[in-house]
Predict the structure.
Amino acid sequence: MNRLSDRMLHAIQAAGTNQARLAKACGTQPTTIRDIVVKQTEPRFRLLFKIAEALNVSPLWLAKGEGRMRLEEPRETLPRGKLFVVPVKGVCSAGRWAEAPATSDVSAEELMIPEQRYSELFGLTVSGDSMDKHYADGTILICCPLSIYTSQVRDGDHVIAQRVRAGEYETTVKVISKDLAGRVWLVPESTNESHQPFLAADASAETVEIIAIVVGAYSRR
């Protein structure tokens, strides 16, 4: 089953329901469900997770065909019948400088996710290719503020770095890497070699701060 529409039909049949009842359970119109199945229209994130929850299948399996179809996570990690809302705030992009931090943007979109280990999660939309070995343009990163992250930040972690220069802000995703001298570098992993690593503690005229840890990512494709 390579198509979302095929997986959705299979899940509907496995659940012993039909498109009309599924639409009612998700709070949407039957034509919306029919368009996904027949016209292969891609549902928005919120509706995708409502459909997965109503059919008791994995959102990742439904969206991409990856992993197991049925949810097998412990209920204390993934409560049945409960989804969590993550506000998607600004854009995360290397070389894009703005008058205000991306995290200060008013949320224009919400992402529904089936688990929440931390409070105050927020989303940032990737723009550009500075981390295209991991995240395609348009990917939504699920971010946990560093102030509430309970684990130790380690080499290889993906973080959100904020640079401030002359009153302007750049918000970008990078990989943590420590050198032999103990210095912390923020490294792009990109097919574009023009993107260069920089120090987390920069002695130049700009301020560099790690503001969040990437704890998940959702692709629009």
